[in-house]
Specification:
The structure is a single chain. The chain has 345 residues and is α+β, with helices and mostly antiparallel strands. It folds into two domains: 109 residues, Rieske Iron-sulfur Protein, CATH 2.102.10; 182 residues, Alpha-Beta Complex (Naphthalene 1,2-dioxygenase Alpha Subunit, Chain A, domain 1), CATH 3.90.380.10. The chain is 24% helix and 29% strand. The protein contains six helices and 18 strands. The strands form four sheets. A seven-stranded antiparallel sheet has the order 12-18-17-16-15-14-13, covered by helices on one side. A four-stranded antiparallel sheet has the order 2-3-4-9, with no helix packed on it. The protein has a four-stranded antiparallel sheet with strand order 5-6-7-8, with no helix packed on it. Strand 6 and strand 7 form a beta hairpin. The longest helix has 31 residues. It is globular and about 70 Å long. Pfam families: Rieske, VanA_C.
Length: 345
Amino acid sequence: MNTQTINVMLDPVDQALEVGLKDLWYPVCPSNFLKESPISLRRLGYKIALWRDNTGKVHALEDRCPHRGAPLSLGVILGDRIACPYHGVEVCTDGVAVRVPGSPGCKLEGSQATRRFHAVEAAGAIFLFNATDPFLAEAPPLRLPEQLTSPEWSNFLCYVEWAGDYRYVIDNVMDPMHGVYLHKQSHTMAEGENTAEFQIRDVPNGFIFEKKGQRDVNFDWTEWTDTGIHTMRLEIPYPKTGGPGGNFTIIGAFSPAEKNVTAVFFWRCRKVQGWQRDTWRFLYKNRLEKRHWDVLEQDRIAMENMEPDANQHEHLYAHDMGIVRLRRHMKKLAQAQLERQAASA
């Protein structure tokens, strides 16, 4: 390992980014991962226990009993609390150890000793708020793009886990030009020029990186937004065989999972209602979905075969302005986070 790589690994800004910025919402798993029993996931630098109470509401705590560190995810659900399997310590959804059956009245009983995560279930996924404060009483509302909330839109969630840093996945989506090369055999990305001039255009809560003079031809632009959750949006023009609904919209959000593993969420959306909605959903599941998985597989192979320090050996050019803009912005957010943490300490 060379000195430059070691310095990157020890950089506090890079370390903050590696596990995900604080005080943001992140998707952590599809809703169908969580059924009757608790589950354990590694996300955002933590091991997290998730479960549903008897109303179906999702709760999340750090997967570590405050007594001896046993995994709460192996415990028993007791309504608004979960009982550790090791010694029966009951921890409430707010992280308070409400009952210690082996030693009633001890100091642990009544203490808020377990990190809690505010959880919201929406658009077929479970989202957690990655708070700086481990015992935050209330999280800000989750604000998702209209494609995932408006009844005018229909969507399918595509979830995958890729080996590699989530920031490489973000770079991939912030790179429209790779579509005309890597995905040139795709029925949705076979058109358009293989050269382009790009520009950056600011929009509320983010920016758009787009080709000049080409729109609705190929993968021609990417939008990045921050509404308390970082999301990315792009559109792919559909041929007539793609059914009703205009361009095919993709909403992406990406979360650091285990070391060098990314939880990848792509919502595939069309603006359709009524019979057109039913027609598109049928057509998508029976004809189009496999083609889109093939495109994702091309991205996966490219991402997973990049070296972890690939971004230390780059020679960027004009097509990479969007990547440079977003990397700089993320570093500024990380630096501001570190300054806030230092001030509070």
